Amino acid sequence: MKIFYSLNLVLLFGLIPFGSLSYAETLKDQMSAEAFEKAGLDKLSAEELAYLSDWLSGKVEEEKEKIVAEIIPVGDDRFGAAEKIQRNVDRIRPEPKELSSRIMGSFSGWSGNTVFELENGQVWKQIERDKFSVRLQDPTVTLEKGLFGAYFLKVKGFGSRVKVKRLK
User: Which residues span the domain enclosing 72?
Assistant: First the structure.
């Protein structure tokens, strides 16, 4: 049971990429020389190392399938399970509550249908009719997650915010 727990940790934290253990040399490449030696793997023959690598690869694949099946139901069990799937995803990799970036260039506020291109490559669009006028260069903005999946954009140093949705 201990090995399954360890493999789950390896899978969840991505320490061993899936399918990367198909050759004995790859197993050696996955570990530092010190770790490989401390584990006693340097004492194995090439054939033994290849067998261990293949066995480990199979175990990793088995555990991956178990985890994926638990997180994402299949067939009829998936019908109507969108909320459960999202809860599982959020449990594994929670979404940040806010994000800071900058709007590059001249910024004059928003006026009902404004598109915001952020320095990090994301693109957001205003989805509520509201106006805010200002003249700024490369302003820092914060995107905050509100209730019921809503997102709001605020310009640093100002109290106004606008409801937005992500385009890219």
Answer: 2-92
